What does this fold into?
Amino acid sequence: QVQLVQSGAEVKKPGASVKVSCKTSGYTFNSFAISWVRQAPGQGLEWMGWISCYNGNTDYAQKVQGRVTMTTDTSTSTAYMELRSLRSDDTAMYYCARVTTEATGGDHWGQGTLVTVSS
Amino acid sequence: EIVLTQSPGTLSLSPGERATLSCRASQSVSSTFFAWYQQKPGQAPRLLIYGTSSRATGIPDRFSGSGSGTDFTLTISRLEPEDFAVYYCQQYGSSSLTFGGGTKVEIK
It folds into this structure.
């Protein structure tokens, strides 16, 4: 079955960087894209961008453009999201999701990674 | 960026009742790329409906989606105890993907 398993919770100081991993299994990795979505505590869902696992092409949301880098490692079927220059308002649960042409928001999701930014 | 506005913010209903959730877009969106998600506390969102009206795998037929242009609706024909959750609409267009702010369906 399709599974996306994310790395564990992180605590970072303002100005630092964080890199979250999303290890996939149960499907052909390079046939789909991976989307990253975050959710601040008690808030709604915010799309950060996505990466094609076929050719590495990316599309980032304007709000995080310049601070985010999404990559993949096809040898391990893993996607990564790095966010730099962290601020307190980056504190959120970060989710990866498998993107299909029908389900652009994602048809299968990881369990989430809590990133806390605090001095 | 297309803004999705969901209403009501909270819907208080009893099990067995019908739930009607609305999502209005700030400009016309593609029906092909319109979806609904369900999220329960402490869980990741789950895809319910894609392409405006197609149920995702394993989603019971009490969930249905409809709409076009700027107005979309998610209907739950008879609420089951496990349906009390937050629901988000989502669209993709013009190289941008957005979610609505969510509707919480709570037990009355």
Residues 64 and 75 of chain B are 5 Å apart (CA to CA). The radius of gyration of chain B is 13 Å.
